[in-house]
Design a protein that fits this description.
Blueprint (H helix, E strand, L loop, with lengths): L19 E2 L18 H10 L14 H4 L9 E12 L2 E9 L10 E2 L2 E3 L6 H13 L7 E5 L3 E3 L4 E9 L13 E8 H4 L5 E7 L10 E9 L2 E4 H15 L7
Parallel strand pairs: 2-8
Antiparallel strand pairs: 1-10, 2-3, 2-5, 3-4, 3-9, 6-8, 7-8, 10-11, 11-12
Helix pairs in contact: 1-5
């Protein structure tokens, strides 16, 4: 079932009236050939070259721009998401979900499998456990490969660590209806295609990190879904790392 199905309520995007178009995607200057044939090996090699291989760093070692979003990282809700990648027909694909519209927060939004970490649980363990609960992913099939920069969500006050895992092939996944309305996947090369990404500049409401500046908000339209928020931020960094361009400032 896609988001175009009339039975699926549309996402609520809290776009402020002052929102305006932003800039082009970071990879806009690359020729089409640089945005295709992105095998799983190419993706993982790029992560290693960017220093994102291996285990995720502790939350306290996150960039200042992330830490400044919280008065105290210790008081933030620690969470982790699994960026699960597999290869099909020579292209790496990423697993995504559309959250149930019955959830209390981020309802109906596209996200990676993941959720809150349990006390003493590291990001990898939390992400894999949540993926098993949400979409039935077999933990034994996931190989740990790396991580991406953490992000924060202003709505739920979460500090989210994305971890990257590789799958041996297309997984058999079943959405847990209590948490997920749809599980799907998309090729990275499709996310890099023209007219899939766009940026908007928002003046966010008063919050802990508000300084009166506009914030870039990123969107992808792919696989019949609108991807935005924290998920789009993680995808944007992943794609920038893979194609070798500088990720935009957040």
């Amino acid at each position: 079932m896609s988001s175009s199905d009339p039975a699926v309520p549309p996402q609520i995007v809290p776009r402020p009236p002052t929102a305006r178009p932003g800039g082009p995607p970071p990879w806009s200057g690359l020729p089409p050939g640089r945005r295709r044939h992105l095998t799983l090996e190419v993706v993982l090699d790029a992560l290693d070259r960017a220093g994102h291989g291996g285990d995720a760093p502790p939350p306290g070692e996150a960039p200042a721009e992330v830490l400044d979003s919280f008065v105290s990282v210790e008081r933030a809700a620690l969470a982790a998401v699994l960026v699960a990648l597999f290869e099909e027909r020579g292209e790496a694909r990423v697993v995504l979900t559309r959250r149930s519209t019955r959830l209390r927060s981020h309802r109906g939004e596209v996200s990676f499998p993941g959720g809150r970490a349990e006390p003493g649980e590291d990001p990898w363990a939390a992400a894999v456990r949540e993926a098993a609960e949400e979409v039935g992913l077999d933990p034994a099939t996931v190989t740990r490969h790396g991580w991406l920069q953490p992000v924060v969500t202003f709505q739920s006050g979460s500090f989210i660590m994305p971890v990257v895992g590789g799958l041996p092939g297309r997984p058999v996944l079943v959405a847990n209806p209590a948490e997920v309305d749809r599980v799907f996947d998309v090729a990275l090369t499709d996310l890099l295609a023209d007219d899939v990404f766009h940026e908007e500049l928002w003046m966010l409401p008063e919050s802990a990190d508000s300084d009166g500046r506009e914030r870039p908000i990123w969107f992808f339209e792919a696989a019949g879904e609108l991807v935005w928020g924290a998920t789009a931020r993680v995808l944007t960094e992943l794609l920038a790392v893979v194609v070798g361009v500088k990720p935009p400032p957040r």
